[in-house]
Amino acid sequence: AIFFYSLVCIIIHAVVQEYGLDKLSKRLHLPRFNQSKFNESGQLLFFYALSAYWAIYALINEGYLTSLDGLWTGYPHIVMPFWIKVLFIIQISYWLHNYPELYFQKVKKSEIP
After folding, report:
1. What is the pTM of this model?
2. Does 76 sit behind a cis peptide bond, omega within 30 degrees of 0 on the bond before it?
3. I need a surface site. Which of 8, 53, 58, 113 has the fewest CB within 10 A?
4. Please, are residues 52 and 81 in contact by the beta-carbon 8 Å criterion?
């Protein structure tokens, strides 16, 4: 499951890069060495905003804001909702997809200011 969602994260990463960040960086006329920083920051902003929204929605929807002891009451025999499991799997998949990305995006000497 984590491998599949890692592939999903790679595809979402490519779509956000191609249709969002590349067009915006061309419109802003950024220099070459600033484009890589802009793209990386844009990807992180997208992921953090989506993760924060999903986590806050989980806290509110599951009632953890009103009673924090609900996190550990009945553990390990409590059933976790499917969409919270998917949240954890997506988080793990995103961070695992970063390792090959770091390998493939080696910094070139021309990009270092």
Report:
1. 0.71
2. yes
3. 113
4. no
